[in-house]
Amino acid sequence: MSQVTAVLLAGGVGKRLWPMTQDKSLLRFLDKPLIAHTALALRNAGITHVVVVANRQNQKALQELKGGTVVVQKNPLGMGDAMLTVRTHIKGSSILVVNAADIVDQKLYENILQKAQKTSADIIIPGLERKEYFPGGYLRIEGGKVVEVVEKPGEGRRPSNLVNLVAHFFRNANEFLEKIQKTDSKRDDVYEQALSALLKTKKAEVIRYKGPFGWIKYPWDILEMSSLFLRERVSTSSISRKASIHGSAIIEGPVVIESGAKVLEHAVIKGPTYIGANSTIGTSALVLESMIGRNCMVGFASEVARSYLGNGCWLHTNYIGDSVFEGENYLGAGAVTANFRFDENNIHSTVEGKRMNTKRTKLGAILGRGARVGVNASLMPGVKIGSGAFVGPGVVQYSDMNAQGRVFMDRALVRESIRKKKNDQ
Amino acid sequence: MSQVTAVLLAGGVGKRLWPMTQDKSLLRFLDKPLIAHTALALRNAGITHVVVVANRQNQKALQELKGGTVVVQKNPLGMGDAMLTVRTHIKGSSILVVNAADIVDQKLYENILQKAQKTSADIIIPGLERKEYFPGGYLRIEGGKVVEVVEKPGEGRRPSNLVNLVAHFFRNANEFLEKIQKTDSKRDDVYEQALSALLKTKKAEVIRYKGPFGWIKYPWDILEMSSLFLRERVSTSSISRKASIHGSAIIEGPVVIESGAKVLEHAVIKGPTYIGANSTIGTSALVLESMIGRNCMVGFASEVARSYLGNGCWLHTNYIGDSVFEGENYLGAGAVTANFRFDENNIHSTVEGKRMNTKRTKLGAILGRGARVGVNASLMPGVKIGSGAFVGPGVVQYSDMNAQGRVFMDRALVRESIRKKKNDQ
Amino acid sequence: MSQVTAVLLAGGVGKRLWPMTQDKSLLRFLDKPLIAHTALALRNAGITHVVVVANRQNQKALQELKGGTVVVQKNPLGMGDAMLTVRTHIKGSSILVVNAADIVDQKLYENILQKAQKTSADIIIPGLERKEYFPGGYLRIEGGKVVEVVEKPGEGRRPSNLVNLVAHFFRNANEFLEKIQKTDSKRDDVYEQALSALLKTKKAEVIRYKGPFGWIKYPWDILEMSSLFLRERVSTSSISRKASIHGSAIIEGPVVIESGAKVLEHAVIKGPTYIGANSTIGTSALVLESMIGRNCMVGFASEVARSYLGNGCWLHTNYIGDSVFEGENYLGAGAVTANFRFDENNIHSTVEGKRMNTKRTKLGAILGRGARVGVNASLMPGVKIGSGAFVGPGVVQYSDMNAQGRVFMDRALVRESIRKKKNDQ
User: Fold this and answer.
1) Does CATH place domain B221-412 in 2.160.10.10?
2) CATH 2.160.10.10 domain range(s) in chain B
3) Alpha carbon distance B3, C61 (integer Å)
4) Which of A271, B6, B178, C264 fits A255 for a cystine, CB–CB 3.0-4.6 Å?
5) Does the predicted model carry a pTM greater than 0.90?
6) What does the pLDDT look like over B204-238, one tens digit per residue?
7) Residue contact A408–B417, C-beta within 8 A
8) ipTM exceeding the 0.85 mark
9) Which residues of C touch B402 (CB under 8 A)?
């Protein structure tokens, strides 16, 4: 078999990820961006040439990662346009097209490449087996071959229980690129149209996949992704020799603690949990089933449960449950996230102006980079706080806040029952 | 001596117990309703036939307890009417009339029955020795016999220091019932009138009693009752083999921990304390001198001090002091009860429209069944929250709340100092 | 050498110390007032006769200390007037004039007295070596002698890096007192003028001093003074045999714990820290680098960091950072001090009507004697609460409060979304 070029799609713009300011492929899990996890898995599976489709915003960051040749898609014209952009960078005749921010078991890539070698399939598409309906593309299988990808068929109308997973192998990349060129480029599903056209004449094999699958669309999907990494990659404990764990601290279940991290007196960590380099879990703090980035301070008597903290977050006697903090977030003493509606209903959130059901009964707050919360403030379930915004002390924040926004309790709210003259000594 | 029928009075309606929705005889201590404690003590003292006077509301619950024959008093017409209701259910000629929700030492019942056997007394009335005045009925003793019960004589005018304790033995029940029938039934003290009339002609012995005595009139009396049970019945530690206690937890003083309960890392429990079945005392939580029901979660870094929690309460980083939670109460992180006035005065409470002195300097909140409290909310000393009510996040609640009531911070209180346009990415 | 009389100046009135109600020389560190520390150091250095200049307010307290002869300066007319007041109480011919509330190493006093004995200097003035400018008096040195004290020369115009430290030795006290009498007494720098006049004709030696120096002008200077005592005098641990430390408590670094103090389960103390007699560090509390007075209760899950608590303070699940509590201060559960501006700027404070930069990035609250704070209240960085004042539950306090002041959340702020009729049972 000739060389296979992996095409990593990282040029999409994730507006629905707001207030996360970072490109989703750059979100860090276990101290590595998603795209680096994907690139590593591809490399381990035997692919030596990786082309990354970036956009103008993430180009620089992606280049710094040195995970492959970075090509910039100048305008956000979708996957089809992305493919045309990389045309001249493909080595060999075959390609494996992969969403950079999708996380699958590395074995899936190995299986695809093996199938490519052992069979004469023109196309190989993995089908993610899913019992419950979710609004994606589904594979129609006939005679064991993929004959069509049906987009969002609606519940009960699925042609199979196999979801189209974007890790597409094309033996002859040019054939596919030509189809794309011939497709009406005004629509945003050029890639899908071209693939469908190709499926009519080419032999497409399916690989049924039941393994882990992580993807991010909304900010709360970061919690699922974090869970997936903890479950799959933190299965045994590993504590750096350069970490310091106080003798009275208790660590239960699989926990990874990186170099320079400190776990102070009476702290409790329950796995699976990841503690990044140089982070401190303070006296009497509790961390469970969470991912904590680098240089974080989970201060005295704080609890972090089922949450994701990016780098450089500072907590101090806080409760953080089912929450996503992008990084450099500071919380004053007594600030808490409410992560549960008292009517026990699903938590809703507004995304690009539309109210949507997150399908979660537990969801705390989403904080963009550098958002800060004052002492004794309360963040209601599902609120999203823009980067650099500040929720003032004592405020009960029910709604989303724009970046750099500021809210304070109206000081007129406080009534002085006795006001004596100026100097009362 | 012929058979003695115990008549357990449980038909009274305790409006002053609001927001407790449960009949006081059904309030659970050490996982058993008060009436079951009383019925057991009577049984242990040798009484085999127990008749329970129920009302329409508690009839079913009392029948399920299987503590005796349940007879329903159709209208709340007082103790006299209650006695007439059970008339046909009395076996033998003698009766022992007992308030179902009053708790005394079982030996008192034994002493009454012994005195009944050894003497020819027509009536036996226990007199509770009390130094301080309280507004009850007092026994007038002449020649060693009880000759009168004086209701609320006023301080300094007590005929003796013996309080009339309703555990009345009548050798000839019919004589008493006839007196009741002859008494003007329009007044609500028919029982007392009939007893007074009988005392003029019959020989009534007194049994002086110095032992424990617990009774409930107001919701905060539940704290005294809880104290009494802990003091008297939790004198040595008893930890179920089916409970799990983390090695870092500390248990001091007598503590009963039931089956399925869990005590997590660094939790501290100080006795006398009772932890009901399947309840969890969370990481770094502190429970002292409290009664915790079944299926409770005293979450991370919560403190419960000198309080009563019914079944199914959920706490999470809360301070609960000198408080009564009926059951299924949820508190958000950071919610606290204030249990002490800063002027150190007694705490007052409104009962049926009247402001009354609870005579306690420490009193937290009283929560009816299912009342919930949002994150960082504060409950002021002595507030009573009706069943199913919700105190919103950050609210400082100074006054009582009706059942199903809801209060929230006015969101207009929050001032946004900078409000940028919609999308700030 | 003839006898030396030490004149301790304690008659100044420190208005800028508000809301501290106590004279600064009476502020207690390591359970002893500043003046007693100074008097002890002088005694240890060999001075047997001490005269204390008091004012009408602190006269009684100073007499009770029995640290020396107390003389009352009737009106606050400055140091010059103070000197004239003590004239008749001086024994021998020489004096050492010392600010009672300034703390230096005892060796400085020894060095002054040695120099007095070994040389023929008329005057000896210690010069505190300081790199950074601060607005005090600076010594001009010529030919190794002090020839002038230049008051507040302005940055970059200092005649030397030696700050005039008030521990002035005068071999002939009368000469100095005569100069004072001849000076125009209407100005408030009589002392300095007289000294300057004397320096023109007399031989004044300097002692260069690099050791510790503590002084108090503003309330937050108490934090520096506290730090100095902890650093200098709490260098090794010393735990009274009459203190009780639970086996699960952790004590790290040098910590002094006095008689009758209790350290409860899972408490953590990090030195240098001082815990006064009969104080309790509660379950799961954390105290670091702080000075805690007598009879304090640092209750469950409280943190006290880099703070000064006077006698009789009660905390309960609070965060107290970089704060000064004069004494008898009570805080409800969940009340916190914010000690850090989220913009990371220096914290400002209003002193006698003027806004001033405290030059601290970390500063919590300053509480006068008996000031109290309700549950879940928040004190903003640098706020000063007058003695006996009360910050109500849930209040976010941004500004200073007068003594006996009271503020509450406006109850109208709470909106009841459902209000049912009176009785909802």
Assistant:
1) yes
2) 221-412
3) 78
4) A271
5) yes
6) 999 999 999 999 999 999 999 999 999 999 999 99
7) yes
8) yes
9) 419-422, 424
